[in-house]
Fold this sequence. Notes:
By secondary structure, this protein is an alpha+beta fold. 53% of the residues lie in helices and 17% in strands. The protein is built from 14 helices and 13 strands. Strands 2-1-5-4-3 form a 5-stranded antiparallel beta sheet.
Amino acid sequence: MSGLLPRLLAGLLAMGLGALAGFIVGAELGALIGALSGGLLGFAGIVVFDALRGWRLMRWLRGAHEGVAPRDSGFWGELAYRIERSLRALEREAEVERTHLAQFVSAMQASPNGVLLLDANDQIEWCNARAADHFGLDPERDRRQRVTNLIRSPAFVEYLQAGNFDEPIAVREPRGHGSLQVLMRRYGAGAKLVISQDMTERERSEAMRRDFVANVSHEIRTPLTVLSGFLETMRNLPLTEVEQKRVITLMTQQAERMANLVGDLLTLAQLEGSPRPAADKWVRVAALFGQVEAEARALSAGRHTIAFAGAGDAQVAGIESELQSAIGNLVSNAVRYTPDGGRIDVAWRRVDNGSGEIVVTDSGRGIAREHLSRLTERFYRVDGSRSRESGGTGLGLAIVKHVIQRHGGELDVASEVGKGSTFRLVLPAARVRSAAKTAAPTLDEPADVGVR
Ligand code: ADP
C-alpha cells in the first residue's frame, strides 16, 4: 500500500498539470477539452512509466535471475526487492537441499555394500557404483529399466516376486566371479531398497578355515593312530625287551610329532592375536645367531658344515623369541632338507637402502619353481613324507612369514632343484642399527637412537 499513495498522487499531479497545460494551450479550442486531454495525457504518461518499470521487472523474472533485480523506487522497487528476497531464500534452501542430497549420495557411494533403489514397478531409480559392479549394471543407462530385465538370476527374480524379504538370499554374481548376499526392504509407496554384499572373500576364508581344521585333525589323527596301534601291540603281544625299547622309541617320536604340531599351532595363534612388535626393543643379531647355531648343530649332529657369519655388532628391533623362532625354523629346514655332507651358511648383511637381512643358504635338494609361491601356506609340503620323517609340521614357513611381516619385513626365497635354496629375512631400515655407533653417545647423538 505504501507504494500506491505516492503513485496515485503522482498520477493526480500529472493529470492536474496536464489539465492546466491543456486549459492554457486549449483556450481557443475549449478549455474543457484541453483540460481533459491534458489530464489524460498526464495519466497516460504515468501508465507508460509504470508499464516500463513493470516490464523491466518481468524481464528480470523471466531470465535466470542473475544479478540484482531492477532497483526502482516506490511500488515497483519494493515489489522487485521482495520478489528477489523470496527467490534468493528459495535458492538458498534448494542449495542446502542439494548439498544434503549430494552428501547422502556420496555416503551411499562410499558404502561397502551395493545399494539399489527400485520404484513401485520394480524399475531402477538409482544404484551406487558397488551395486552396479555386483549386478553388472550401468548406473546412468539402466535407470528406469525394469530390474528383472537386467538381473536375470532366477534366485533374485523369485525373491523379488515372492515378496517375502525376511531373510537375505545368496545370488551368484552375473559374471560368475563369486557370490552375493542380497537383502531387500520395502520403503515409501511400494518402493524397494536392495542391499548386496560380496561374499566371495568370506566364503574363501570360510573354506580356508574348514581346510585348516581338516588338516589339523588329519595331522593329529595320524600319530594318534600310530600310538594307539603300538599300545594295542604292547597290550596283546608278549614283546622282548629289545622290541619294547624299539616300540617305545617309535611312540616317543609320534608323541614328539604331536607336541611339535600343537606347539606350532599355539605359536601361530599367538602371532595372530598379539599386537605388532614395538620398534624400540633392540636385540643383538649375534645373540640370535648364537642360540640358533647351538640348535642347528645339535640337529645336524655333525652331518653338515654349518657357518654363521657377519652378525658383528648389528642389532634388530623386535621380539627376541619371535625372531629366534623365525631364524631357527629356516636353519632347521636347511639342516633337514640338506643331505649329509652338505653346507649351510647363515649370514647377516646390511643393504644399501639401510635395511638388513638374515640370509640362510643351503646346498640341499632345492625346491622346484612351481612350489615357491605356496611354501608359506599352512601344511603345504613339497615332499610330505620327507617333511614328516624329519619331524616337520608343515607350519614352519607359515610362522616365519607371519613373524617377519609383523616386524615390517618380508621373506624372500630363491631356489634351484639340486643346487640348494636361499631364504632371506629382510628387515626394514627402521628396525636395524649398529651397536658400535650407539655405545659411545655424544651430545648430538643420544644412545637410544640407531645409526644406520
Ligand atoms: P615343514 O615342517 O614341512 O618343513 P615348512 O613350512 O617349514 O614345513 O616348509 C614347507 C615345505 O617347504 C617343506 O615341507 C619342504 O618341502 C620345503 N622346504 C622348506 N625349506 C626347505 C629347504 N631349505 N630346502 C628344500 N625344501 C625346503
